[in-house]
Amino acid sequence: MTKRVPKPPRRRTSAAAGTLRRRRRSGATADARLADRAAREFRRLVAIMQRLRAPDGCPWDREQTLESLRGFVLEETYEVLDAIDRADRGRLRDEIGDLLFEGVFLAQICAQDGDFVVADSLQAVTSKLIRRHPHVFGRARAQKAMPGAGRAVRAPAQRAIVTTPDQVVEQWEQIKAREQQAAGETRGVLTGVPRTLPALLRAHEIGTRVAAVGFDWARPDDVVAKIEEEVAELRAAVGHETPERAEEEMGDLLFSVANLCRKLGIEPESALRKANEKFTARFTAVERRLDARGRTVHDATLEELEAEWQTVKDD
Fold it and tell me: In this structure, which topology does domain 38-148+165-182 adopt according to CATH?
C-alpha cells in the first residue's frame, strides 16, 4: 500500500492584497472615464471656437487678434489665482474653463493663419512632460519624446534617485539645457524668463532657475542675513544718497525677499496678495468703526486712526 503524501496547501492571496488589486483596477477605470470625458469636452470646446471664428460666426470673436487677447489672458489668469486664494473650488472650476478657452482661442487664430493647430500645442506639452520626467516615465520614453528623436539625439541623463522636489527642478533644468543644445541653441539659464511677469514673481523665477544649477544660498538664514544687509544699505541711501540710489537698494531688498520666499517654499505674489487683502479688510473695519461714531478717516487724527487700527488688529 502506497502511502499518500499530502499536497502542500495552496498559497492563498490575502484578502487585503485582493482588495488592493480591485481598487487599483477600479481607479484605473475611473481615470480612463474621466480622461474620455475630458477629451469629449475639449473637442466640443474646439468645435465651438471654430464656429465662433467661422465667416458666419460671431463678429466680435472674428475680429480678435493675438494682441487684442493679451489682456483677457492676463485677466483670466488672475481670476484663477483669486479663486485659489479664496479657496473657492466652485469658482475655480469655472475660471479654469475660462483660462483654457483663452488658450483654445489663441490656437484657433494661429490655425486660421496656417501656423499650427491646438493639437500641436497639446502634443508639445505632453512630450515635454514625458521627456523631463524620466524618473516617472522611464528613460526610453523620455528618449522617444525628445525633439528630433529619429536623429541621433542624446537622451536625457536620468538621476539614479529623484525623490525630492528640489532634485526634480534640478533635473528639469538639466534636461532643458540638453534639449536646447541638441537644437543648436545657445540659450542661457535665464533666457526665456518672461519680462512681462510681475516683478516679484519674475525675481522668484530667476532665483529658482539659478538655484537649479547650484547658485544659491545654503540656508534660509543666509538669505535673512542678506536682507538685513540690504535694509542697512537702504537706510544709508535714504539718509545720505540720491533717490536713484535708494531705488536701487530697494530693488535689491525686494529681490532678496523674493528669494527668501523661494527658500521657504512661499509663492511671493500669493503672499503679497493675502497681505493686501488683510490690510484692506482691517482698514475697512477702521472706517466702519469711525463711521459709527460719526467720524471719517479724513477728519480723524493719526492717533485716532492708530488706536482704531490696534483695536481691529486685536479683535
Answer: Helix Hairpins (1.10.287)
* pLDDT value, residue 122: 95
What pLDDT is recorded for position 30? Answer: 86
Specify the amino acid at residue 228.
Answer: E
Distance CA 308, CA 107 (A): 53
- pLDDT of residue 141 exceeding 90, the answer is no
**Do residues 123 and 109 touch, judged by C-beta distance below 8 A?**
no
Domain regions of the chain by residue span: 38-148+165-182, 199-314
In whole angstroms, what is the distance from residue 73 CA to residue 71 CA?
A: 5
Question: What length is written for the chain?
Answer: 315
290 within 8 A of 297, measured Cβ to Cβ: yes
Do 312 and 285 form a contact (C-beta atoms < 8 A)?
yes
Q: Is the pTM of this model over 0.85?
A: no
Do the beta carbons of residue 176 and residue 231 sit within 8 Å? no
Q: Are 134 and 154 spatial neighbours (Cβ–Cβ below 8 Å)? A: no
For the ranges 9-18, 152-161, 202-211, the lowest mean pLDDT is seen at 152-161
**CB within 8 A of 290, min separation 6: which ones?**
296, 297, 300, 304, 308
CATH 3.30.750.24 fits 199-314, yes or no: no
Examine domains 38-148+165-182 and 199-314 and report if their fold is the same.
Answer: yes
Model confidence at 153: pLDDT above 50: no
Query: CB-based burial of residue 199 (10 Å sphere; 0-12 exposed, 13-18 middle, 19+ buried)?
Result: middle
Banded model confidence at residue 226, pLDDT cuts 50, 70, 90: very high
